[in-house]
Input
Amino acid sequence: MEVKVVKFGGSSLADAEHFRQVAKIIKADDARKFVVPSAPGKRFSADIKVTDMLYKCYEMIKNNENIDEQFSKIADRYNGIISELGLSFDISGELEYVKNAMLHHSGRDYAASRGEYLNGLILAKYIGFDFVDAENVIFFKEDGTFDEDKTNREMRDELKRHRHAVIPGFYGITPNGTIKTFSRGGSDITGSIVARAVDADLYENWTDVSGFMMADPRILDTPCTIDTITYSELRELSYMGATVLHDEAIFPVRYAGIPINIKNTNRPEDPGTMIVPHAHTYDHDRIITGIAGRKGYSVITIEKDMMNSEIGFGRRVLEVFEENEISFEHLPSGVDTMSVVVETKQIDDVRDRLLNRLQRTVRPDTISIEDGLALIAVVGRGMVKTKGTAARVFDAISDADVNIKMIDQGSSELNIIVGVEEGDFERTMKAIYDEFVK
Ligand code: ADP
Ligand code: ASP
Ligand code: MG
Output
């Protein structure tokens, strides 16, 4: 018997009308046995996600402010859904419990996780599925990292006992019994963990777009939708800002080779995007699969004559970053220069210390930090087979009159990364897209 795990994002569960649509989708296919909901998202663009409202409540409590009004807005979201669906379900006791626990300092992650928890309770009631609390099946280790083995084992055992179940996304529990969430957008990870535990045939990830598009639709006007993409390509794109799917969500399903299908809740008939382990069986004729990018990077450039013959130079530079707990993104280098590209937010509080330490450790001729860099990843499994792709990328960028500040090509030849000034970001994305798609 085929088994599908279905995850619905916040916009797919933002109001009663969407709940009805979600129920219709689940009931349309018997294989859709395990459902992972997010917290109610935005109903319109100026709306606020319940998760953000919960974070705000947490901050207010920290500042000793009264949360009655803020919390009642959250309660209204859930009560509105329940009453519009005509459910005879009284969630007031749960809401009261959550509010009290928050007031008794149950933590920031606990607060945020209640968005999914409460939505999961309502969805389970509405569609008649069992509710399996994520705190009983998703585990973190003492050091805060995800406990993959324990989770897989315990979730598998638990879900065997349920024909159908709703498992709220985004959170799990630590060994000392506190609730912990994944990073933002983490319900995608929960869906993937559930898919692996039940050995699903397919992980359907339902959202508000008809699949993964070749570029961010908020930057380019209606980019083409990608029909199939590999796990590796997806990881490059989602890490670089294509936020449709959390960039860590492929790891659990990757082990088992379970494909992910990104689908649109509002247009269920659209095929969406298939994310698959390998693509040779799904070959397409495009050289480029997708483009993604992000602003907010800085480059630290170190110059020193004869750097290349100084054994251990690179290691000493990177040790300084490690001491300051900064992870780096790229390391473009020349004979006498070495640059380290990092997220600006990682160095904001340690700039002076970092520069001083680098000065003392490697005694460079010059050292500088330049902010305001945007990185763009051009990703495609077709690039390995095609000569001249890099030249086309660079020509397109220079024809758009944009100056390239950095270039890095991944050793797998799956991606080319270019750095440009933040002000040129949108223009560069468009130029590359037009070169390969139009
Ligand atoms: P959900 O709430 O369902 O988890 P998200 O907001 O996390 O949905 O992800 C879907 C959104 O991702 C889309 O509405 C779109 O604005 C954005 N997005 C960014 N890059 C892309 C891309 N390459 N293709 C499609 N959508 C993208
Ligand atoms: N509700 C959480 C968030 O807004 C998790 C998720 O939606 O995946 O980040
Ligand atoms: Mg999401």
Notes: The pocket of aspartic acid (ligand 2) is lined by residues 9-10, 38-39, 49, 51, 115, 169-170, 184-188 (CB under 6 Å). The chain is about 40% helix and 20% strand. Residues 290-437 form a domain with the VC0802-like fold (CATH 3.30.2130.10). The radius of gyration is 24 Å.
